[in-house]
């Protein structure tokens, strides 16, 4: 007499992971993000030239000339090295700011969605007021008043993203708060903090992850925009936004590579993040 082995059912998180690993869009996006993360962590493994080394004799050397794969800029600095090293600031500040925004936004969204009533009314009005303000203008005002260092930029971007994330989390919590597992926890005498963070939070990870990836792309653009106008970086920095600003006038002399290469690098990172976000959104919506 033989007994058939029943297949072990996958948990929702395991099923989600399995579907994502089968997605070419997800894998391609992760490949792009992983490359730029490697550039930020260990740029010396990819290039061996100092991004700050100047050689005016080699000014505006064309790509694939004299050993310079992507040419040189107005100061004779290697464009490839500067593109690789330029990932450092964005790959540190953008994820840190997004994580801060998600943490604050999730806490606010949980309170708004679960506690409701007065808490929801007060926080909703504040969030609606904050969302109506242009992100880049608020960031400029804050950084003009405060010291435009790394910590300040991370705090400002995180603060501006938190209301948007809170609104998404609130909607997810409202869809969960009246389900049986929440009622059972409440009838068991569990306090509000336990219900929010132990019962509800694990069940809304999907929307939170989607929101994280979407905001990460916006954080990259926001950081690049601030760098472009001179916040958070010093003149001569290889940061992509700063480099595009410094080299923009080279286009008038038909020298495109010093400014176009960092722009392509920036675009490739944002596209990679968006590919991941689209793949996760597709799995969550199923």
From TrEMBL:
Q: Which CDD domains match?
A: TM_PBP2 (cd06261)
Name the lineage.
Answer: unclassified sequences, metagenomes, ecological metagenomes
Q: What kind of membrane protein is this, topologically?
A: Multi-pass membrane protein
Keyword set includes Transport: yes
**In which compartments does the protein localize?**
Cell membrane
Q: Give the signal peptide as a residue range, or say none if absent.
A: none
Name the source organism.
Answer: freshwater metagenome
Q: Which InterPro entries does UniProt cross-reference here?
A: BP-dependent_transpt_permease, MetI-like, MetI-like_sf
In this protein, which residues make up the domain named ABC transmembrane type-1?
A: 87-277
What does the entry list under GO cellular component? plasma membrane
**For this chain's UniProt record, which GO biological process terms are given?**
transmembrane transport
Task: Give the Gene3D superfamilies listed for this entry.
Answer: MetI-like (1.10.3720.10)
The name this protein goes by in its record: Unannotated protein
